[in-house]
Amino acid sequence: MRTYIIRRLIYSVIVLIIVTLLVFLAMHLLPGDPILIYVSSGQLTQSTPEAIALLHHEYGLDKPVIVQYIDWLGGIIHGDLGTSISRHMPVTELIKLKLPITLYLSLLALLVSIILGIPAGIFSAIRRGTWIDNIVTIIANAGITIPSFWLGIILIYVFSLKLGWLPTSGYTSPFVNLGKSLSQAVMPVFCDAIFAISAFTRQTRSSMLEVMRQDYIRTAWSKGLKERIVIMRHGIKNGLIPVIALTGMSLSMVLGGSVLIETVFNIPGLGRLLVQAVFAKDYQIVQGFVFVVAILILLINLIVDISYGWFDPRIRYN
Amino acid sequence: MAQASRFNIDITSPRISEFQRMRRVFFGRWIVVFGLVIILIILITAIFAPWLAPHDPYQQNLDQTLLQPSHVHPLGTDSLGRDTLSRIIYGSRNSLMVGVIALGIAASIGMTMGLLAGFLGGWIDNLLMRFVDALMCFPMILLALVIATLLGNGLKNVMIALGIAMLPGYARLMCAQVLSIKENDYILAARSIGAGSLRTMLRHVLPNCLPPLIVLITMQIGAAILAEAGLSFLGVGIQPPNAAWGTMVSDGQSYLLTNPLLSAAPGIAIMLVVFSFNMIGDGLRDALDPRLRGTI
């Protein structure tokens, strides 16, 4: 197990280095000089060539690309992701400010998708062919079809504008006002989770069906065990192994979805920051954001891989 | 045999050919046929849009803005007085085109990478697959958003962005397929009668790897259309006045209280197309490889 963990760690570091390289190179292929965009947006009073050159120098944009990359990498190690050109703020500060909001909603969404998706999948599998199974399958199929941003708008129309049950948009920290925070989070979290809920349901259902066909399940039945014991002790334990792998992918889905959901519900998180940065052509923010998300996903995948190796010893020796 | 009995077809029966069996399985579920019919209808409306759309989708009528549905405008008009139904019909062109071409890019590049990595192994495998692993660290929509910004707006760039963002899945699946196919005796047989690497790879390994990939491609057209809608919702990609379903949903958001249909209708169009492609994918999966049922 230890060699397995060490191998996974080394592998993650290699991937992380490639990630930094990709992020950095991609951002430097962006068309348009960020300083000129900054100048033309009227944020600088003097736009003389000297002033522009000075700004280039100040942000290190006059150095060779490879030096800029090494500077950037060195900065990251010290927790410095550069300075946002459009917001005149260190990117690390901005991310510190916005990340908790996005993480709060995304982790809630992940939690909701696991809590709803896995039991629905198990239930649907053990009641295969009944009306319950049919309804669950139809909902799960619809869930991977609905555009999350559209669902958000429809929910706002029904629950906020027509029924007046929930606030239309906004965000409140759960530490400031838990009730308000949760009532504002209900719709965004559900919309962000809808795809993951369906993915969990489908994956759980199919892997449970696969497990319930195995010989040892038949043996368990023939021993005269109760249905509950067969399903809980023999079925679910093995059926959920492939589902674990989905956790990493789901976090990726909900983090990606936050870009859309935060726009719909006007939530001042990382997703909206990214969209604004994309339009302002603010490299540093995009770079920092993408990098932070990649680290989060790499981390959860590492955890998933290790727990996978824990649950299924065969994986370790591959 | 447990697999076959689910479709009520005896696959060992010598009387039906493999193709007939696949056709029967594919057309055996009504929901698959439904998906196919919907896609055909949408394809026809996309091709014949100029004749089928009741109005010019770009014609602004500032004295006829935000009209409720009527005989003249079955789905009403938007804030610039353009006919919603006509814009949805024209929007189908963009959605279908983006979905199919983005998938073409993703599948062709991804599959080539997977084939090379799986077949050649060694440092090429390491290099290509670590690159793919790095791409997998970014959520798909995010990757597409960043690449689309990088390339600049426009239909073509959205296709390329989505193509790159979606290629990791193909590279991985292809690589895994090649690794398992490579171990078969018939590959050894081909090598032993003197087939070269290239010939073995293209004639013997590649064709046997394809079934699950074909299924994945069909299933992901829907995902590509969904992602394109998300990008145009954010304002990246297809630019106005060009009609895109995602943009229409976004534009309608401001008039939600008075004209909910402006946002609702294009969303329903997206769902219908995505659902239909998913169902065709399901049907193909069952037909090509019943063992995969419920797994992809």
Description of the structure:
Chain A has 318 residues and is mostly helical. Chain A folds into two domains: 2-89, no CATH class; 92-311, Orthogonal Bundle (MetI-like fold), CATH 1.10.3720. Chain A has 14 helices and two strands; from the N terminus they run ααααββαααααααααα. Chain A has a two-stranded antiparallel sheet with strand order 1-2. The radius of gyration of chain A is 24 Å and the shape is flat. Chain A starts with a helix and ends with a helix. Chain B has 296 residues and is an all-alpha fold. Chain B is elongated, with a radius of gyration of 23 Å. Chain B starts with a helix and ends in an 8-residue tail after the last helix. At the A-B interface, helix 1, helix 7, helix 8, helix 11 and helix 12 of A face helix 6, helix 7, helix 10, helix 11 and helix 12 of B.
Task: Summarize the main sheet of chain A.
Answer: 2 strands, antiparallel
> What count of domains describes the coordinates of chain A?
2
**CATH superfamily of the largest domain in chain A, called what?**
MetI-like
Q: List unreliable stretches of 5+ residues of chain B.
A: 1-7
Mean of all residue-level pLDDT scores of chain A: 81
Strand order of the largest sheet of chain A: 1-2
What value does the average pLDDT of chain B take? 80
Order of helices and strands of chain B: HHHHHHHHHHHH
Give a count of the beta strands of chain B, DSSP E runs of length 2 or more: 0
Shape of chain B: elongated
Tell me the distance between the termini of chain A.
Answer: 12 Å
Ends distance of chain B: 21 Å
What portion of the residues of chain A fall into strands of 2 or more residues? under 5%
- Could you tell me the radius of gyration of chain B in angstroms? 23 Å
Largest sheet of chain B: none
Counting H and I runs of at least 4 residues, what is the number of helices of chain A? 14
Which class do the helix and strand fractions of chain B yield?
A: mainly alpha
CATH topology of the largest domain in chain A: MetI-like fold
